[in-house]
Design a protein that fits this description.
Shape of chain B: globular
Oligomer: heterotrimer
Number of domains of chain B: 1
Distance between the termini of chain A: 24 Å
Largest sheet of chain B: none
Strand order of the largest sheet of chain A: 1-2
Structural class of chain B: mainly alpha
Order of helices and strands of chain B: HHHHHHHHHHHH
Number of strands of chain B: 0
Shape of chain A: globular
Number of helices of chain A: 13
Largest sheet of chain A: 2 strands, antiparallel
Chains: A mainly alpha (363), B mainly alpha (305), C alpha/beta (359)
Chain lengths: 363, 305, 359
């Protein structure tokens, strides 16, 4: 007798609805045990993590600030993944976008350049991100090189390029040799939405992108094409869809969004170019894309939820002295549970009483 | 000449954790599974390896603790990706986050402690031979182990039937399954072997390299190991070359600075990654009909019943 | 076992939930932002020790909180503001990269007091503080000049920022007083913290003929390599003698406790005001670990040098300071370089046979 996984005839909509709830339930149980082992009150801890950040305007704003780049990148990645193109180098595209946009900010610093600077920076960031993402895509289409690995390698190259620039040519002359550019001029800074807060224009851009992606996937031929190529490559070939072209397109779009997120982050919350501008956004966004089930609205929710655990984790450190490592364990466990439960949308378990009688060879 | 000997000794030590972790990942990927959680498994291996050695006073027990910890963590990954058919990229990244957190919790009790590093081999007469003596006969046991491991893996993959079956699972799981091979079971073993190696590689750092534990001490070596597997185009022989080349670039870059050669260090550091991309393109191009990458790498497999 | 577990759960559920908040009202809340994990054995660890000293000193009068592993990127501003919003009235941000975020939050909350380590921007509610670690480096230079048989020092640098450059220069100036021909080899590892890489750098330096290792990175890895090779080394940030009982000559220890205690006391007394503190050996912000593994005459020389610096008779950067190009550096402080020149130091002194990266 053994438990086996098998594919459902069609996706289960019931599971799709309850799966996140099961996952959160399981996480709460697991974490409660961990909190008790650590000698913390599990109920207070869970309230600090999940409820407190939702109860005041400041934390809500911060959640939006944190979620914004994650969602923006994840939307692009989801298009790739739907089309079966595996871009995992968004971190690198984020950095390149930040670098390209910052170039303009550095060059126009102290000049009387007008309002066009910021839009031009955003454009540069997006274009550079797209071009950088096209490298692995072209290697894939032209030479068959695994895009998973080439895109990952290019992350390090981007990181080192940024490092070189801010320690060398672009270093703030008045900055005592510290590795950072000078603060960007006001015309090169993303405007704040609420006076005194940190919520910036990037949040609105993110929402627009989510909406655009929803329309693209749900209402256009191109969206249909992306989904068909990913889900049924053979059928797509018969349908005359060009898979290679789609790989190039989705890589370019996801690179552009990652690059845009990069320059917005630099011209917004950070205010200058420096190493360490991304606390792993490009990688965390991959998780957001999957948590959101590659669906634009799902990604929005997943991004906000993950941001909530970051903010909650910080508040738990302050209010309950819960070490940061616990938050990481918490996030890891949560991700595993959500991914595992989501698997049951497409698959189900079945008890098999007699396993298949085929000898497994002589080896 | 003594400088050359010294550089080679440093290169061997710097390359060893990369080689061990990459060897494990090579087997995992050959079976068709992409586990991006190497960094997470390594750092947990480092924490547990140090803890074991510190509590027991024995390097061997420490190494075993690292191996077991890595294997257990990879078992979670196997349950997710093989048992529940969850996407491997997402699971691997989640594993890294979990591993970093766990290592911090486990290691919190050992911070600031020190242990005696693993002893180096010493054979009177042989070890004292000028220039080559210490390189061949004076290393720490992990270095010999890493080389034995890669030879064993080569022999297993290319000279044994189970090795052939494992590669078959990686190249075409549907056919392998149709032939009656237990694809998921084989892959589980491959993933756990990868985890055990990552754990050992992580444990090498506090047991032999720098005999103390600090959170985050793997400093990205797990990601480099992933790159190495690609660089080696999934071939054990090339993996050895790749690991030592990578170690050599790292060490020589430091020596170049000490000798006053002024190349921006970032360019030197970026070289191995660029080389990996170029190698990948070249090998993919050389073989018509796709790359030497295991064809089923990273794809989900659920057997039909 | 199970019973105990359940009892623990019950106790926590009943007791724990109301514990916070009630008595905390009249306590002074003091917050800290750390760059690394508290257990990094280096920079962050020393700040954490000082925080613990605060708790010991003031007991129930204060409540301290820290956030660890706060990256210097977009998250820093939020982390600082979170501490403000949790009611902290005095906040220490302990790394250079928090300078701009601290300043932004300080402008937003004029009633909260901020203390930023190692930066140069300040405001009416934001003090800055740093240690004159170069004083310790000068003493190390004197010791190294005496102790090095090869006449070559190995120096592991993190990043070529003034803080590190002034350390290298102070070391050389100290060493030149006892050995005019002393040489230094410098390797930049481009990280504050990667034990493996620090060990590799130490090995490379020893292999290239240096026989004393000095470091401006955080982990004890280099010390431990020197110990394995039977060479000598200086510790960094904290006491590292445990990692090289026969190796460590001395260590420059960051000792933040006296400053933190003074600032918290000022806050409690309502006398806190903005200050720019650059404390050295005299104010005990910089403390030398015991002088070990050296003959008595060197030890005496080291202690005399330390005494002279404390008494204000000796200044590491006393004029004339000769630059690498052989020209005298402009002497803005009268008899010595002024603090501004030292803080922005971006040149090597004569005798350093190397080039500052990126210059």
């Amino acid at each position: 007798m053994q438990l086996v996984l098998e594919k459902r005839a069609e996706r289960s909509n019931t599971i799709a609805l309850v799966s996140p709830l099961i996952a959160i339930g399981l996480t709460i149980v697991t974490m409660s045990i961990l909190f008790v082992i650590l000698g913390k009150n599990p109920i207070s801890a869970l309230i600090v993590y999940f409820i407190d950040p939702l109860t005041d305007a400041y934390s809500l704003q911060e959640i939006a600030v944190k979620a914004s780049p994650l969602v923006m990148i994840a939307i692009g990645l989801s298009l790739c993944y739907l089309a079966n193109a595996w871009n995992i180098g968004a971190e690198g595209q984020f950095l390149i976008g930040a670098v390209a946009g910052s170039w303009l900010a550095v060059k126009t610093q102290g000049t009387d350049a007008g309002f066009w600077v910021l839009p031009a920076m955003l454009l540069l960031g997006a274009v550079a991100g797209a071009l950088y993402a096209l490298i692995p895509a072209i290697c894939k289409v032209r030479f068959g090189a695994s895009e998973i690995l080439t895109s990952l390698m290019l992350v390090y190259v981007a990181d080192l390029l940024l490092d070189y620039l801010v320690r060398g040519p672009w270093r703030d002359p008045a900055g005592f040799n510290f590795p950072t550019t000078a603060e960007f001029d006001p015309v090169a800074t993303v405007p704040i939405l609420v006076e005194g807060g940190r919520l910036h224009l990037g949040a609105i851009i993110t929402l627009l992108i989510v909406a655009a992606a929803a329309v693209l996937l749900g209402r256009t031929i191109k969206g249909f094409e992306i989904r068909v190529v990913g889900a049924a490559p053979r059928a797509a070939r018969f349908g005359g869809f060009n898979a290679n072209q789609l790989i190039l397109l989705t890589f370019a779009v996801s690179g552009a969004l990652a690059g845009l997120a990069g320059i917005i982050e630099v011209a917004g919350p950070v205010g200058h170019l420096q190493p360490g501008i991304s606390p792993g956004y490009g990688f965390t966004a991959i998780i957001v894309a999957f948590l959101g089930r590659l669906n634009p609205i799902g990604i929005l929710i997943a991004g906000l939820f993950l941001a909530l655990t970051f903010i909650g984790g910080e508040q738990a450190q302050i209010a309950m002295k819960i070490p940061l490592d616990v938050t990481k364990v918490f996030q890891g466990i949560l991700l595993f549970y959500v991914l595992a439960c989501d698997s049951l949308i497409l698959y189900r378990f079945r008890l098999v009483f007699a396993s298949r009688q085929v000898s497994s060879g002589t080896g | 000449m003594e400088l050359v000997e010294a550089i080679i000794l440093s290169v061997l030590a710097a390359s060893t954790p990369l080689l061990i972790a990459a060897t494990g990942e090579l087997v995992t990927e050959r079976a068709g599974v992409l586990n991006l959680g190497v960094e997470g498994m390594m750092i947990v291996g480092a924490a547990c390896g140090f803890g074991g050695a510190w509590l027991s006073g024995s390097t061997i027990i420490g190494a075993l603790c690292g191996i077991i910890a890595g294997a257990l963590l990879s078992l979670i990954f196997a349950m997710m990706t093989l048992g529940l058919a969850v996407n491997q990229v997402a699971s691997g990244l989640a594993l890294t986050i979990l591993g970093i957190g766990l290592s911090g919790l486990i290691g919190a009790g050992f911070v600031g402690e020190r242990i005696t590093p693993a002893p180096h081999l010493h054979i009177p007469g042989l070890t004292d031979i000028p220039l080559i003596g210490r390189i061949l006969f004076g290393e720490d046991p992990f270095i010999y182990l890493s080389l034995a491991l890669i030879v064993a893996v080569w022999w297993f993959l290319y000279r044994t039937r189970p090795g052939l079956v494992l590669r078959a699972c990686g190249d075409n799981h549907v056919s392998a399954h149709a032939l009656g091979y237990p694809v998921l079971r084989i892959r589980t073993f491959a993933v756990m072997f990868g985890g055990a190696c990552a754990g050992l590689a992580g444990a090498y750092l506090p047991l032999a390299y720098t005999p103390f534990f600090i959170p985050g001490m793997t400093a990205g070596r797990g990601w480099i190991a992933l790159a190495l597997v690609v660089f080696a185009s999934w071939l054990p022989g090339r993996l050895v070359i790749g690991a030592y080349l990578f170690g050599a670039v790292t060490i020589l870059q430091l020596h170049a600075q000490g000798a006053g050669v002024g190349i921006p260090s970032q360019f030197m550091s970026a070289l191995p990654y660029l080389a990996t991309v170029i190698v990948l393109v070249l090998i993919s191009r050389a073989r018509t009909g796709g790359s030497t990458a295991p064809a089923a790498l990273g794809t989900v497999f659920v057997p039909d019943r | 076992m199970r019973k105990r577990f359940l009892a623990a759960v019950a106790a926590l559920l009943l007791g724990g939930s109301f514990a916070s908040g009630a008595s905390a009202a009249d306590k002074l809340k003091v917050g800290f932002i750390y760059l690394g994990p508290v257990g990094d054995l280096g920079w962050t660890y020393q700040h954490e020790l000082a925080r613990q000293a605060l708790v010991k000193e003031f007991g129930d009068k204060i409540e301290t909180t820290y956030l660890e592993n706060v990256s210097e990127g977009p998250d820093a501003e939020r982390s600082i503001e979170q501490l403000v919003r949790a009611g902290n009235k005095l906040i220490f941000t302990t790394s250079f990269g928090y300078m701009d975020p601290t300043l932004k939050v300080a402008k937003k909350y004029p009633n909260v007091h901020f203390e930023h380590a190692t930066g140069f921007k300040h405001d009416k509610n934001m003090s800055i503080y740093n240690g004159r670690f170069y004083e310790g480096r000068y003493i190390q230079g004197v010791i190294a000049g005496k102790m090095s048989k090869a006449g070559v020092l190995g120096y592991i640098g993190s990043f070529p920022i003034p803080e590190v450059i002034m350390g290298i220069n102070a070391t050389m100036l100290g060493a030149q007083t006892v050995n005019p021909n002393i040489k230094v080899k410098i390797i930049w590892v481009n990280t504050w913290f990667d034990p493996g890489k620090e060990a590799d750098a130490a090995k490379a330096l020893l292999d290239q003929g240096a026989d004393i290792i000095m470091q401006h990175t955080d982990s004890p890895a280099a010390m431990q390599v020197a110990s394995e090779r039977g060479k000598l080394a200086f510790g960094q940030d904290s006491e590292m003698i445990k990692f090289g009982p026969k190796t460590q000559l001395t260590s420059i220890m960051d000792n933040w406790a006296p400053y933190y205690i003074a600032r918290v006391k000022a806050e409690l007394d309502g006398k806190w005001k903005e200050e720019d503190t650059w404390g050295g050996l005299k104010s005990k912000m910089v403390v030398m670990a015991p002088y070990t593994n050296m003959p008595d005459d060197v030890k005496k020389l080291a202690m005399d040098t330390e005494g002279a610096i404390i008494d204000g008779k000796l200044f590491p950067f006393k004029c004339p300071v000769i630059g690498q190009d052989g020209k005298e550096v402009e002497c803005k402080g009268g008899t010595r370089l002024d603090d501004g020149q030292v803080l922005g130091m971006n040149f090597y002194v004569k005798g350093v046979d190397d080039k500052i990266p990126g210059k």
